[in-house]
Amino acid sequence: MSNSIARRTVLGLMGAAAGAAVLPTYASSRASASNDADVSIVDNGSTVTLSNGIVKFDVVKASADIKNLYLLGSIQGNAGLNLLSGPRGHGYTTFDYSGAARSTGMKGGAFRVVSQSPDRIEVSILSNDPTKNTFYVDIRIALERGSSGLYQYWITKYTENMPDGLTFGQLRYAFSTGDDPAFKWFVVDDERGIQQRPTIADTQNWVVLQDSTEVLPDGSIYSKYQNSTNLEGDNHVFMISNGKVGLSLVQASKEAFGGPTRPELTCHDYYEGMILLWHPLTGHYGEPDTQPARGWEKVYGPFFLHVGEAAVGDERANVAALWDDAKRVADREQAAWPYAWVTEPIYAAKERSTVTGKLNVASLGAVDNGWAILYQPGPDREFRGVTLDGTDWQYLSLDYTYAAKIGPGGRFSIPAVRPGNYTLAAFTKGAMGEYRRENITVPAGTSIDTGTHMWRPENHGPTLWQIGTPDRSSEEFFIHGGPTGYRENLTWLEYPYDFPNGVDFKVGVDDPAKKWNYFHPGLKTPGTAKQLEWRGTTPDTSLETWKIRFDAHRYQRGTGYLDIALAAQVYATLAVTLNGTPIATFDPLPGVPGDNSSYRLTARAMYRKLQTIEFPATLIQDGENVITLANVRPPQVPIADNWMAPMGGIMYDSLRLQVNEGS
Prior knowledge:
This protein is mainly beta. The protein has three domains: 3-339, Beta-galactosidase, Chain A, domain 5; 348-455, Immunoglobulin-like (Sandwich); 463-660, Sandwich (Jelly Rolls), CATH 2.60.120.260. It is built from nine helices and 41 strands. Strands 6-7-8-9-20-17-16-11-12 form a nine-stranded antiparallel sheet. A hairpin with a 2-residue loop joins β18 (267-270) and β19 (273-281). The model is unreliable at 1-33 (pLDDT under 50).
């Protein structure tokens, strides 16, 4: 056995019966860990205890809280360690919805055993009382024989007995290790690798600059937003650890969560320990509130909470081993999706189909990157003063969004799609906008080939210049601190020092990675008064204007076309001039008015392509021309919590100028 394999025990590799593809190297050790114990349930009155000889935990009947999680099958001496310890250690719900004065949780749930056998137990905690929660939610928790963790999923509905006007802002389940400072390790993805939360001493001496964002005594920034996902649809697992045991949250599918480009929070410090987060629905990165109609129903999950164990030794090496283990478990759970054991009719485990096809893009040919997406459009609706496009899958949260990467030859295969009528969307690097084809009918329980899709992205004529690569991100531009600086620093506070005279970009001369900032702030000195004082910056609230300079010849006729695609925007507006002549004003910008991207430390959130700006080509003059980009007015937040406005602005994906001189 190699050293890397020897470091792990079977407990980190055993999972649900559905994931039978366990490496044979480990299978021989299974009996020593679990004794192949039956799954059992003990009624304690207000709680029940579920156990399978490997893990044991308590479920609070009225709230679906999970308490007292133990790794019974430990072979490294951890069997007596409560992984959800202390008065603040537990798994718990968080609901934000209309009618609730503030964040609340499951109340007055009715408990029942859904199914029970020696191989699997599934329990239900149902809230269907409008005096407790004003929507129907049935939280299911399941434990299987030989499994190294537990499953959870939610059945949500808007039923006739509930009050009018239901609106969701957040649905969440979290696992808190409470007051255990040993839980200091965490991993979000391979790119960021193994990380440590600040020491307790550091947390007692840090300076708070923003919501959940602090300056540590050594001057570095620490924020829960640094741990948001940033992998398009690929981040299926993240983990916290005490250096011996790892708790990993595995999401085999994200079909219920709004599409492959949605960033979301994963884990962060919590009291003296850490917390794992499962967010079926939030507005953290621009997703609008969910407003269901009567009769709406949806299944969120299941997710799998995996408990892994590593051999006694160096903690960092153990965490690396636990992370490798967690990724294997995630692969196994993805292969098992949809779970055959989920019998809820709207989950439709036996009716799913696979949808395949091929994408060709004019001028690019058969692409080998990007995403294919199936979704069901909804009606346009109003949200905070703007109209949201019901055909844009980014704004839809009532139904399911299925997605798969586009691979070599432009081919894609979208698995586990419920039967229905869908719109197919696709996007790829190098092409502005996205492809769409309506009326894709998916029958039940089969495979359907949608053929070759020929996408001809919008094109108006010869291109004079382009800044940026269409990829729904601003990461290729200048970022203070390097490529990942947007999540490691409060980059907006550095903008006045990096660009004291603003961005003044010469096409064909300047390098966008050096001369084009990834974020165009609305104000010359973006940041709250407290942040600017900490940085030592004199406030200047005048609007920040950017310039694009380009050389051209004079056109005698024809039309110019300026296309601007945004990777994100935070309460911004945009005015565009060419050689001093206004050619466009966007107030408001389309889509959600603020997607929180800047101060929640991402380089993208809600993508949008602005309506093409058309202007007489005669406005282009011989020699140098200047386009200006500026906010129309200072950023304004249409909600009471207005501390976000000073970080308002735009993240550009790409800009392109074309001219068609006509016949």
